[in-house]
Amino acid sequence: MKHRIAFITGTDTGVGKTVFACLLVRHLLRSRIRVVALKPISSGGRADAIALHLAQNETLPLDAVNPWHFCAPISPTAAARLEKRFVTLEQVVRHVRRFSRSLPLTLIEGAGGLLSPLGRNFDSRDLIRRLRATPVVVGLNQLGVINQMRLTLEALPPSVADRAQVVLMSPRIPDASTASNAQWLSRLVRRNRIHVLPRLPAALRLDPALRDLRVARTLGAIARALLE
């Protein structure tokens, strides 16, 4: 069995990483693919980790999904420092590998953007390298996402960026760039690695959303790419 790890990061905080991660894990479970989704580190509350916990039918304890959580709504490193705590890269890698060794796919959701500090001298890029994970970069499909996506991809080592998947989350109100961003990004990333999700309801219910054929097809394409 191949043991794949996908790391879901974003062009910024608040771009839809958790919504996407919950949809993807639910789609995989409905497709009878064994998977777990983890958000190892969080700050400013555990709502995202709880959403992942529920999306996978609470098969893991919340403290396994999200073992390090800090109260202050600032970067995890700064929030941990306020609590006189710290997290190391080795601790997170060991925790992820507890699960990834026995599963075809493990999903990891980062906190904030690619270079947001997560713990003592490491960020999401360092975790992607150590775990040999496939990056899934989520951004809002609106004006500015081309620059944000390019900056994120170019911050990755070329060999890692070459296998990254790009996910564009449709905004509540489309702007003049929404219809063309995927086309422009295809000059940088192969078109089959760019995925556009339609606008999802604010009060997201996962199973009804998955009955939307556009959502199901997009998630299926992403799942196939991650399992190759």
Structure description:
The protein is an alpha/beta fold. The chain has a single domain (4-12, 16-227), classed as P-loop containing nucleotide triphosphate hydrolases (Rossmann fold, 3-Layer(aba) Sandwich), CATH 3.40.50. Helices cover 41% and strands 21% of the residues. It contains eleven helices and ten strands. The strands form three sheets. The chain has a six-stranded parallel sheet with strand order 2-5-1-8-9-10, sandwiched between helices. Strand 9 (165-169), helix 9 (181-185) and strand 10 (194-197) form a beta-alpha-beta unit. 42% of the residues are buried.
* Major β-sheet profile: 6 strands, parallel
Structural class: alpha/beta
CATH superfamily: P-loop containing nucleotide triphosphate hydrolases
Helix content: 40-55%
What kind of oligomer do you see? single chain
- What is the terminal-to-terminal distance? 12 Å
The CATH C-level class name: Alpha Beta
The chain-level mean pLDDT equals 94
> What is the level-2 CATH architecture name?
3-Layer(aba) Sandwich
* Content of β-strand: 15-25%
Q: How many structural domains does the protein architecture include? A: 1
Radius of gyration: 16 Å
User: Which residue ranges are poorly predicted, with pLDDT under 50 across at least 5 consecutive positions?
Assistant: none
CATH topology: Rossmann fold
State the strand order across the main sheet: 2-5-1-8-9-10
The succession of helices and strands, N to C, reads EHEEHHEHHEEEHEHHEHEHH
How many beta-strand segments? 10
